[in-house]
Amino acid sequence: MADTYLPPGFKKCKSCQQVKPFEQFGKELKGKFGLKSKCRACISEKNKTYAAGPGAEVKTQNNRTYQAENKTELAEKMRVKRAKEKFGDRYNSYLASLESMKKLK
After folding, report:
1. Taking a C-beta distance cutoff of 8 angstroms, is the pair 10, 19 a contact?
2. CB atoms near residue 68 (< 10 Å)
3. Which domain of life is it from (predicted)?
4. Between helices 71-87 and 56-69, what is the axis angle to 10°?
5. What is the pLDDT of residue 52?
6. What global pTM score does this model have?
């Protein structure tokens, strides 16, 4: 199966079959040229169709139920995530300072 000639910096979308520049494809290490096989527009359309399809209400309700049942665990995960984002490489020293402050109380 011979590929047709594509100019440098272009790739053919497996979904819409259009030849598009590399910028219109997401990154994927395993893909040809390190890019996804479908363009961003096709992936976006697929995701919108899936989100609006049957089961969308069920998933939304399941998410709400899970969040209500696991409120404290999710809050703790978010607290840790925000602290890691804020302190970065100094996160471990931040935890150590919190422990030393607890001992002083």
Report:
1. yes
2. 9
3. Bacteria
4. 80
5. 84
6. 0.52
Looking at residue 2, the DSSP 8-state letter turns out to be P
CA distance 16 to 37: 11
Question: Span 95-102, mean pLDDT?
Answer: 88
Q: What's the rounded Cα separation, in Å, for the pair 22 and 9?
A: 6
1: its two tokens: 């199966």
High-pLDDT (> 90) share of the chain, %: 58
The answer as to whether 63 is a domain residue is no
What total number of domains does the chain contain? 2
Spatial separation of the C-alpha atoms in residues 75 and 67, rounded to whole Å: 10
Residue of 12, 22, 29, 33 lying closest to 2 (CA atoms): 12
As a whole number of angstroms, the distance between CA 35 and CA 33 comes to 5
